[in-house]
Amino acid sequence: MTMECDRAAGVNLAQGVCDTEVPHPVVDQAIEAIYQGYNIYTRLDGIAPLREAIARKLERDNGLSVDPASEVLVTSGATGGFYAAALALLDPGDEVILFEPFYGYHVNTLLALRIKPVAVPMADGDWALDFDRLRAAITSKTRAVVINTPGNPCGKVFSREELETIAEIAEEHELFLFTDEIYEYFVFDGKKHISPATLPGMAERTISISGLSKTFSITGWRIGYLTASPRWLGAIAYFHDLTYVCAPSPFQYGSAAGLMDLPVSFYTDMAVEYQAKRDMICSALTDAGLTPSVPAGAYYVLADSSSIPGVTAKDKARSLLRERGVAAVAGTAFFTGGRGEDILRFCFAKRDEDLKRACDLLTGAASFEGSGA
Length: 373
Description:
Blueprint: H1 2-8, E1 11-12, H2 24-35, H3 48-62, E2 72-75, H4 77-89, E3 95-100, H5 104-112, E4 116-121, H6 131-137, E5 142-148, H7 160-172, E6 176-180, E7 206-211, E8 224-227, H8 230-244, H9 249-261, H10 264-287, E9 292-293, E10 300-304, H11 313-324, E11 326-327, E12 329-330, E13 343-347, H12 352-362
Parallel strand pairs: 1-11, 3-4, 3-5, 5-6, 6-7
Antiparallel strand pairs: 2-8, 7-8, 9-10, 10-13, 12-13
């Protein structure tokens, strides 16, 4: 859809590129690092200043105490962290549970490693968990559960009560917990992000994965990180080194500067800013007849596309781009079993002028041509 949007000169609300401004300390230090010659491989676990800054940030914002020398790994994006952790801790034929709608990279990473993803659907609209379905999905081959909070694509923020129940199930069945917390600062309406590793008994079995791509708007820099018990981190670091060698060296220095120099208000202000962006896109979608499921976190929104011409979600996405000049992702990318054909995902991590243009395009005509049938 990004390529189709480029050809149509539309507004890209499809890919989560996050093209908002990068904080100045992050840019300045990355450039300075290049001039200072930090252009070669780093240690396999990342530069010490970044690992130490990550550890301080985790204690301050997540309530998670980790040793930067033995429990922090700088990765090639959060996706690289997940890939390396799956390589290290799972075997072909294992089963891993994900909650649906899910992030496609999680599913496809597992498939690439010949690991079976098992989707447990959440309730449409409010994305409530069905713990009976979760328990029923566990077999003798289940090795892990993946939690994405706040979640892509639906913006679900897992509550403490939900996480505690998942933790009980994970302990009961001796399961790993892989978390993707990349959107941890994008939480709205007074919600609070909780890192599952902080729950009693979960630090040993949780692989906490996050990164700075979204927080600092540096998705192309590929700076992620994960934290895990030293029991697991060595093997994960080995496979990350084997696959990626290291995250880009000068960008690690830029990211460390951001974590060290930016005030706490940077993160709280960002949540306020993105809540306003969320409200803007949800209002436009409602006015356009594309009823949104208002997200509690992250920077995506799923919307009802049944009024748009087309048989499939892909057809509807192309119709929307053709008729309104706005690109979205087909909902079927996030569901199994034929679900998602009347859903599109929109990304609102855009500069205000671009987001306003997209909203104006969405609401610029009375109705879509034809019917959704």
